[in-house]
């Protein structure tokens, strides 16, 4: 995350009062006053999400509608392809895709979700980047699209193996959705946008709801004994175990999608030899990384010991000597693995799973191994 | 006769003669949340008052534990390596961190008794 202005007053989501009433420990995050945990604590919240269902307030994230002036959604898709290396035209109505805004150097300005709602595109972007993203969209796409900031909507994530049964009681369409389906659906009679996706590695949903109805919907979901409120602490440990990037940490303006091991998110149609190669910011650098390889790569790291290896720890090839070869970008304790987990950047030549490395923690070099991600098998409903 | 004193950094010391048993307070463990790892000082290490002596890690973050007095580390708690969560369940009992031979008893002068510590955390 970009550091928010320390002096600006913290903003509140429509669920602020609910967090406080549930005993949430409120902390500043991306300019918002957000619950880092509830009385259950990070460990229990994490494990509950993997075993049952967790409810997350992600209303701080930006929701943007991209409405084509022509009325044809493919014109909005074609326009957005000027800013992202993904195949947006290929997103079918009712489907969603992971994307990145790139800069002229091939670095990542933000990562986002793009859904095709039939007559327009629906974007979900990171909280700390949302103002810059909107300005970026206005600067480049205003000729083709109306950029509509949906600031009057909250966003609730419901994640875990019991998410489907919990949501099915309120939304008849939920059970028939599969991973990355997305569209307008009624939830508890409210006009919502529902996607089957999330940021935990679990099956689950994200529900965009009018701000004024958000607390009522959250309370209704929490009446289900399977559903527990989950704070940002567990959200971070869940996404780390799932191998998912946190913007501003694992990816930023200095990392290309190839270095970040996000090749899977760039469809062949936008690569060299594809139907519409290039045509996005930084295409030269990114396609060169696809064609010739990048020097460094984001990898998963497992520690041999019990000490968590955290963001910023330097990585070494050797137990004693040498210059650092890389750096940890996210790291901590994985409650489901009951072990430390981390990710970071290393030279591509040392990025194969099983490669032995060392992380410097409090002056000691701790042995690590490069490990395949996700660390915890995901349970998406395909 | 054991006297228990507290630091403003939320360590407790149970003092018997010239040996202090040191841990973190129940208030501190509540603030930290679920403890997943504790790093203790090496036996025989001579600590200076206010020096970082141990590290306690929760899911969220790592926090230093400071030496409340100067002295040599006589014993460390082997139970914490196997069960760091003891710090959450019994911070002021079974989850003691280390025992230290108090080098200079005058350093105890600045520490708080239980009533003063309660006021400090109120």
Structure description:
The complex is a heterodimer of chains A (382) and B (122). Chain A has 382 residues and is α+β, with helices and mostly antiparallel strands. Among the domains of chain A are: 16-57 and 152-241, Gyrase A, domain 2 (2-Layer Sandwich); 295-382, Aminomethyltransferase beta-barrel domains (Elongation Factor Tu (Ef-tu), domain 3, Beta Barrel). Helix content of chain A is 19%, strand content 32%. Chain A has helices spanning 16-21, 42-51, 73-80, 130-141, 163-168, 211-222, 232-241, 283-292, and strands at residues 25-29, 32-37, 53-57, 62-68, 96-102, 108-116, 121-125, 145-149, 153-159, 182-187, 190-195, 204-210, 227-229, 296-303, 314-316, 326-334, 339-347, 356-361, 364-371. In chain A, the strands form 4 sheets. A 6-stranded mixed beta sheet of chain A has the order 10-11-12-9-3-13, with helices on both faces. Chain A has a 6-stranded antiparallel beta barrel with strand order 14-17-16-15-18-19. In chain A, strands 5-6-7-4-8 form a 5-stranded antiparallel beta sheet. In chain A, β5 and β6 form a beta hairpin. The radius of gyration of chain A is 21 Å and the shape is globular. Chain A starts with 15 loop residues before the first helix and ends in an 11-residue tail after the last strand. Chain B has 122 residues and is α+β, with helices and mostly antiparallel strands. Chain B has one domain (3-104): OB fold (Dihydrolipoamide Acetyltransferase, E2P). Chain B has helices spanning 26-32, 79-82, 86-89, 114-121, and strands at residues 3-6, 11-16, 19-24, 35-39, 46-47, 52-58, 62-66, 71-76, 98-102. In chain B, strands 1-2-3-9-8-5 form a 6-stranded antiparallel beta sheet. In chain B, strands 4-6-7 form a 3-stranded antiparallel beta sheet. In chain B, a hairpin with a 2-residue loop joins β2 and β3 (19-24). The longest helix of chain B has 8 residues, at 114-121. The radius of gyration of chain B is 13 Å and the shape is globular. Chains A and B meet through α2 and α7 of A and β4 and β6 of B. Chain B: The glycine cleavage system catalyzes the degradation of glycine. The H protein shuttles the methylamine group of glycine from the P protein to the T protein. Chain B: Residues 19-101 form the Lipoyl-binding domain. Chain B: The modification N6-lipoyllysine is found at residue 60. Chain B: This is Glycine cleavage system H protein. Chain B: Belongs to the GcvH family.
